[in-house]
Write a structure and sequence with these properties.
The protein is α/β, with parallel strands linked by helices and 241 residues long. Helix content is 31%, strand content 17%. The protein has one domain (2-191, 200-234): Rossmann fold, CATH 3.40.50. The protein binds 2-amino-2-deoxy-6-O-phosphono-alpha-D-glucopyranose.
Length: 241
């Protein structure tokens, strides 16, 4: 595991975008695993700027996203499909048909999850999976649990996650209670993993993930077993390490 400590969010975003750019430049038809949340927004800004500057070409890139809220469709501004379109896809020349997010509108969890697992099997190995980390150590929406879930599955969001994510919604009641998420097995199959973390509210989770025991109670701790995981974190997020 490689840990890169940076000063602040701007440096984090530039560093993460440079790593992703390296993947795209060395393999123009790469498959990127993408994440939502506030952590990667600056990284997406930097990637969009590199595209504007003619440095990056996304025309052969494919992407698979980690997760989606159950019940929200892509026109809902809180859906992760909407987030990805707004923060990255509409700003670069990726073919939108090559971008995949679990279908939050499908009420049939088994059908939705097995379709996404089939997609992940068929599309090929993810070259680089970008991750944020929840304040409770979750990755994607793999919440603390008593076992690691391998494949895409439907989760009941924990109260901690509902509290952490309510800032994006008009009210706490509006936060969906369920999500579809790639499992830990799906995530760990990526050739490389890039986790970005900033801010004091991530310090405990990051310390547990990087230095604590590998346990499903802190899902991000599984990254200790990945052969090519890179952590880019700012001083605040690293303050308990
Ligand atoms: N499902 C997402 C995660 O993929 C993300 O990493 C996490 C942290 O979000 P933020 O970056 O806004 O702190 O929030 C959500 O729960």
């Amino acid at each position: 595991m490689k840990i890169i400590k940076v000063k602040n969010y701007e440096e984090l975003s530039r560093t993460a975008a440079t790593i992703i750019a390296g993947t795209i430049l060395s393999k123009p038809d790469c498959i990127l695993g993408l994440a939502t949340g506030s952590s990667p927004v600056g990284t997406y800004d930097q990637l969009a700027a590199m595209y504007e500057d003619g440095i990056l070409d996304f025309s052969h890139v494919k992407s698979v996203n980690l997760d989606e809220y159950v019940g929200l469709d892509g026109s809902n501004d809180q859906s992760y499909r909407y987030f990805m379109n707004k923060n990255l896809f509409s700003r670069v020349n990726i073919d939108i048909k090559n971008t995949y997010v679990p279908d939050g509108t499908n009420p049939d969890a088994d059908a939705c999850c097995s379709a996404y697992n089939t997609l992940l099997e068929n599309i090929g190995t993810v070259d680089l999976q970008l991750l944020g980390i929840g304040p409770n150590g979750h990755i994607g929406f793999n919440e603390p649990a008593d076992h690691f879930e391998a494949g895409t599955h439907c989760v009941d969001l924990t109260d901690a996650t509902i509290q952490a994510n309510k800032r994006f919604f008009a009210s706490e009641e509006d936060v969906p209670r369920k999500a579809y998420t790639m499992g830990i097995g799906n995530i760990m199959r990526a050739k490389s993993i890039l986790l970005v973390a900033n801010g004091k509210n991530k310090a405990k989770a990051l310390a547990a993930a990087l230095k604590g025991p590998v346990t499903p109670q802190c899902p991000a701790s599984i990254l200790q077993f990945h052969p090519n995981a890179i952590i880019v974190a700012d001083e605040d997020a690293m303050s308990e390490l």
